[in-house]
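From the pipeline queue, job 12 of 40. The input is one protein chain; the requested action is below.

Action: predict structure.
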Amino acid sequence: MGVMFYKVGRYGEDRGSFQSAVAKLRASGESKSAFFGIVLNQMGLASVQLYRIDKAIELFEEARTILEQECGSCHLETLGVYSNLAATYDAMGRLEDAIGILEYFLKMREEKLGTANPDFDDEKKRPAERSRKDTEQKRKIT
């Protein structure tokens, strides 16, 4: 139900649905499965939509840990969490963290999919753009 709520923009109900699922999965001992990591990622996306960025980071970080262990760092679900976590770090102003994850994400994605993917060139530019914006922000401050 959570994904359907998300698709129609009912993020509060989406997050509530995923909270219920997370509680049930934790209670049943399924808190280290790939499925649990995917649910945490979805709940993180709902948290972003509700501007609960700190909670989203917490959820994405837990999802990353689980999915790296259960699926590996090259798995598409894990790569999706890396991308979500980098974007969320960026939104919080944690630009160095975001750039580090983006660079790792691109390396893994290139190894997995190669450079022929049409999105690869755009994604390859993201860390450099973030770094340039970070430098510009630091210049404005000083």
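Job complete. The two ends are 49 Å apart (CA to CA).
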